[in-house]
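Anyone up for a design puzzle?
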């Protein structure tokens, strides 16, 4: 199922399976955009990069780009990131995310600018991690990127 079909979401597809498909796609797209690099400033590994929900889903976090950060396996498993993290830790992660995105793709995915969509599409188009099909999917994922 392609993301562009989201609005016409088929009835026979349970909400749960659509949600998990959407999440998988979103996380994969995010990792590709960030070239599979770890956002932690004190990273000493960098291997096996995973996408992490900054505010965990079970504590009200959302499946949106602005809530996702790339962390290598080692950084992801440390620091108790999957507990109900305090505000200070959340702020740290949002800062790491912001610096990471500016460094790797040149802008932040939670920026609220008129030309945000254009920047996002350009970032996908120049990124060699995406093949043609994935580029198409990634450009249709835009409705998952924005806050609303
Ligand atoms: Zn790391
Ligand atoms: Zn995680």
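Challenge accepted. My sequence:
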């Amino acid at each position: 199922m392609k993301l562009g079909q989201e609005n016409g979401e088929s009835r026979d597809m349970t909400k749960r399976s659509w949600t998990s498909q959407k999440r998988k796609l979103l996380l994969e797209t995010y990792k590709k955009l960030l070239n599979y690099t770890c956002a932690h400033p004190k990273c000493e590994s960098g291997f096996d990069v995973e996408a992490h929900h900054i505010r965990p889903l079970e504590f009200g976090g959302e499946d949106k780009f602005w809530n996702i950060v790339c962390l290598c396996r080692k950084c992801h498993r440390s620091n108790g990131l999957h507990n109900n993290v305090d505000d200070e830790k959340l702020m740290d992660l949002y800062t790491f995310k912001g610096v990471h995105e500016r460094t790797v793709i040149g802008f932040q995915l939670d920026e609220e600018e008129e030309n945000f969509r254009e920047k996002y599409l350009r970032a996908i188009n120049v990124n060699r991690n995406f093949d043609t099909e994935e580029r198409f999917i990634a450009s249709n994922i835009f409705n998952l990127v924005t806050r609303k």
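A detail worth pointing out: The chain has one domain: 12-145.
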